[in-house]
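Sharing a chain and its predicted structure for anyone who wants a worked example. Both blocks are below, sequence first, tokens second.
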Amino acid sequence: MKTKQYNGLKLIKGLSILALLIYSFTYYYPRYFGYLSPSVEFHAIGTNFGIYTVSILFVLFGFFIAQQLEEKVKPLHFAVQKFASYYPIYLIGVVLTFLATKFYLVERALPAKTMILNVTMLNNFVNYDGWGNVDEAYRTITFFFVFLVFVTFVLLIGQRRNLLTWTFVWGILGFTMSMIGEAYGIVPLRMIAIAFCGRYGLIFASGIAIHSMTKKDKTIFAGFVTLVSVLFLQIGFDNWKYTAVYLIGLVMILFTIAGGKEVEKFAESKWTQWLVGLSEISFPIFLLFGYFGLAIMKFLCIRLPNFPGEIIMIVPIAFVIVISSIIYTFIQKPLTNTVAKKFENK
């Protein structure tokens, strides 16, 4: 069965990644490292809205996982393919980020044990507050991998057709434990909540729900799950900006799907292909847009004190994109294809 490409959704994914990059260099850098080069100015383009597009990326990830499972992939195949596609790249990101902080962005330097915790992916389980992460982004990435483990579990128990229901219940449990654990300072409960994706499980569920709507499968329940995810997101984060970006993302996703061939034609035009390309390399970008990219930003800001920050950021953004493209082209894609060929006749 030929898998539908949904390039329109990849366009949204590319826009979300671009927003994250802009956020990192025009909001995060001047806020936390601006004192290193006080003469470099940042203007209206700097916004913290970009960080909230992580929720949109998680919705789309849930959607594409549900789409992949249409092909009746076996649990072992799914687990091995995802491991090969993401974990080696994750290791590269951990090492590059650690080295960047250790030898240049010393303001965020962390001990070697932090890198070890991240390599073993125990960072958030050991300390929920984030000191064990080589980068703040790696706290979020933990939930990305936890979701993959959960989907593998659902496949193993033969509940593929009920993935939405299982994910919804799993998300509710994670959200509840996370809120109670934080409200009452119950550390063990907060740590257990991570295994249920904390406050993010329902966001993944909404992506699966939207995919169900495209197949006219459990449409009413899928709509209910999506609405609940919006409500819980606002309760969990208590941030209208986060909720607003999430709602806008959901509307964009739904309109893109409803637009059908017209949207796909637009997404395939030469003017938008670069955004679709960003979506393909989104994972390595997500690993490197933080401290690794900010180390490059610091280097340039100190040496170009009279340039606006928005001009300087072009170089580290381009550098992160180029490095991510190399990692995707020569490591991530070949590993994914190798695993796919290994299992295609099984």
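Comments welcome. The chain has a mean pLDDT of 91.
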